[in-house]
Each structure stands twice: as C-alpha cells, then as structure tokens.
Specification:
Layout: E1 6-15, E2 18-28, E3 33-37, H1 44-51, E4 59-64, E5 67-68, H2 74-78, E6 81-85, H3 98-103, H4 118-130, H5 146-158, E7 164-168, H6 176-190, E8 197-202, E9 214-219, E10 222-228, H7 229-232, H8 235-242, E11 246-251, E12 254-259, E13 262-264
Parallel strand pairs: 3-8, 3-9, 6-7, 7-8
Antiparallel strand pairs: 1-2, 1-4, 4-5, 9-10, 11-12, 12-13
Helix pairs in contact: 4-5, 5-6
Amino acid sequence: MTMPVVHLEGVSFERKKRPILSNISWTIEPDQHWALLGANGSGKTSLLKILTGYEWPAQGIVEVLGHRLGECHLGRLRRTIGWVSSALTTQLPGRNRTIDIVVSGMDASLGLYRSFEKAEYDRAYTTLSAIGAECYAEQQYETLSQGEQQRALIARAMINRPRLLILDEPCVGLDPAARHQFLADLSQLAGNQDCPGIVYVTHHIEEIGPWIDQVMVLKGGRILNRGPAKQVLSGEVLSRAFDCVCQVERIQGQYQMWIHNNQINSV
C-alpha cells in the first residue's frame, strides 16, 4: 500500500489559549495536488507551519512523508519539503547570486552557511535550467523581477527533489503577465512524472488550474469542505467561506468568481 504524503488526524492548535485550528483530518496521496483555500484568518498559514514542524498541535497526529512529528529529526524532514512563499523574498540575502539562493535550498537555509561543492552548484544550475531560468544564474537575486525571483524560489524548493512542495500564496505581488507565466510554469511542472505532491495555498480561485484535482476549504480553523475541485469550488461553498454571495463558473478549465454581480478574480 502506498504511503500518504501527508496524514493529519484530529489536529487542533491554539495560540495563547485561542483556538486556531479544530479537529483537522486530512490525507494527501502521492498522486494528488491540492489547493488550500480560505479567507484571511481561516487557519491556512498555521496549518502549513504544523506540516513543516514550525508549530506544534495541541492534540492530534501529524505524519509527513511517513514520519510522525515528535518522533523524527525535523531538520532532515524539512529538507524533503519544498517551500515557496513571497514572504521568503525579504528573508533571503538579495546580494547573493541567484545560483547561491538556489543551492542554499539543499540545506533549507536562508543563506550560505558552508562552502558548497562544485557538484552541488552543478545541481543548482541543472535545477534552474529545468524551469528555463539558467540565464540569470549569475545575477544578483535582488536585481531580478518578481516573476524571476519566484522562478528562482521554485528551483530552490526543487533542488532536493522533494516529495512535497508547498506553495504559500506564491502569486502575491506579481503583475498579471508574471502571474500568468508563473502559473504556466506550475502547470508544466505538475505534468512531469517526477513532480512532488503540491499544496497550493491561495484565496484566489482563478489561480487553481486544471492540474489541481483536490481542494480543501478552511473557515474559522475548521474544514468547511474538501474533495474534487469541481465539486468544492461552487458558489454555495465559497459564499460560506468568504461570508458573501458568490457565483462561480468554470470556463475552458479556468475558474472565475463573482461577488454581488461584480466580477472579481477573473483571469
């Protein structure tokens, strides 16, 4: 039997005695890509931190890539999880070369804290090449456009060939053209046979491409709905998630959402 990428059972989390997550049970199978959807404050970020061992649940079982949190080496586990977030950009040393940013992903570090070997840099260059980004390997990271920086973060996340890739609102701050290209890159990545399981976190349904087959919606720290994207991404579910009247349509494989007859989140 194939081992799940993620298995959560009855997970609850509190901060300063305030409930943040309540009774979350969730399983991600190796052949699945999930979108995690919800309004601000719904618990998405806290759930990600629990998956990566940066927060600890008050109760419940957390198993990631066959390792139960509390019984494994977190540093080693984190090196098998790819993480992409626009928030990382401000934490990375911008004056480093792009290839230095990518190779730092081998240690899951925010900078270079040891001397990397030529073979490791070769691997970083190959990873950049795989997403068509080798042309700015020698450029300073801070001189790249936002879209180019996100490509570099994808390469950084993929250098250890992770089995789980977490994309935490990766399109924040991207202009429409850069966002379109980034989502196209993800679609191509998801089509590769060796692509890891992806968790794509957003509250914009137009970013949920056809390659995402499962969706989980959080509201107030609880699971509001989950299952196949075509079933979950409905006006009824999203109206409850965002506390407003929503209408959802799927046009040529792309989702669009309207609120009170005004179109928003359109591609």
